[in-house]
Amino acid sequence: MSAMTQAAFQASASHMVDTDLGRLHVVDTGTGSETIVLWPSIFTDHRIYHGLVAQMGDAYRFLLIDGPAHGQSAGAEREFTMGACAEAMKQVMDDFGLERAIVGGTSWGGLAAAHLALIAPDRAKAVLLMNTPMEIDGRRPGLKARFISTGARWMLRSSMFRNGVARSFFTPTVLDQNPVYAQTFHTMLKSADPSRLAKAIRSVILRGSPLLPRMRDISAPTLVIAGKGDKMYPVARQKEAASLAPRGHFAPVDGKHISVVENPEQVAAIVRDFLAREVAHVPV
């Protein structure tokens, strides 16, 4: 972790929040008056946002949520829907006394935030959808989705499985240049409860429904960020999703699936500009 990132996290505080999906670990960091609530992707935890906080923590407060069975969060005892994730995000906001906030996430986290904006539009000032699946459909999962969801419980101890996930998420250059992150990625997966982690992964992959046709129902300003090299969720479909949202904006960035790790400076600049234009009274 860089000295800049360490400084941004000096004032961080960890909390455990009771939700319908179990106790979720939440990191409260940053010094701004405007709050951004973020949820990570599957196979990752709040640490993917360290670079973003390093860039924006002086102007924004962040609540970073570890999803069920990820990071320091307990796992849910049952599989769940993305609507349940949205409710859990809302419960975190309630615990911190937040009526409204900027909500977002990466992949799974983007789905949670989008569903929050759909079921409780008055709670979302703006929505940040980073590398978010728009057509995931649990009724018709592809071969790769079935392999990941089926193998997660039994293969987490396999470095080959974990490396395969890492190669899907990040370019080789990023993995080479971020050995500490690559190590924490492996450590988190090895230490996770395999049964509960598998439930979370199956929930995302096998119990989801397409977000694309519902984008037109998100009334809040919505930013869709896509990795140009993300083969899982191609740029063209991400751009289409942004065009469907009434107040949608689209921004492609270099890299694959976890843009906030691969290009935190570029993502931060895009988010700052979007919020300055679309949300009143936020820092420039």
UniProtKB/TrEMBL annotation:
Q: Which SUPFAM superfamilies match?
A: alpha/beta-Hydrolases
Q: Name one Pfam family in it.
A: Abhydrolase_1
Species the sequence originates in: Jannaschia pohangensis
Listed GO MF terms? catalytic activity
Protein's recorded name: Pimeloyl-ACP methyl ester carboxylesterase
AB hydrolase-1 domain mapped to chain residues: 35-264
Domain of life from the UniProt record: Bacteria
InterPro entries the UniProt entry points to: AB_hydrolase_1, AB_hydrolase_fold, AB_hydrolase_sf, Epox_hydrolase-like
